[in-house]
Amino acid sequence: MPRVTDGKRPWSRWYGLARWKRIREAQLMAEPLCEWCLESERVTEATEVHHSEAHRGDETKFWSGPFVSTCKSCHARRGQLEDHGKTIVRYDASGWPI
Hints:
Number of helices: 4
Strand order of the largest sheet: 1-2
Distance between the termini: 32 Å
Low-confidence stretches: 1-6
Helix content: 25-40%
Number of strands: 2
Strand content: 5-15%
Largest sheet: 2 strands, antiparallel
Oligomer: single chain
Order of helices and strands: HHEHEH
């Protein structure tokens, strides 16, 4: 894993690059609804793009994905858990685990 300097991950700056902004825009246009909300039959606008496989500084994975369109709430909650290797228990619209 790349070394962390000054409290930031070295790849943090990649999120500000025009290349990422184009990828993000294309993902949100292709999948405009939160994919994680849809699992529970909730329709929510996607505003965030999550790397569905943690890249951990791997530049190829960072740029090539795969990506998931999410709402801000799901990205903050579930995305963080996934990034830290936690097991995610998902539920369908009737409340049953999936």
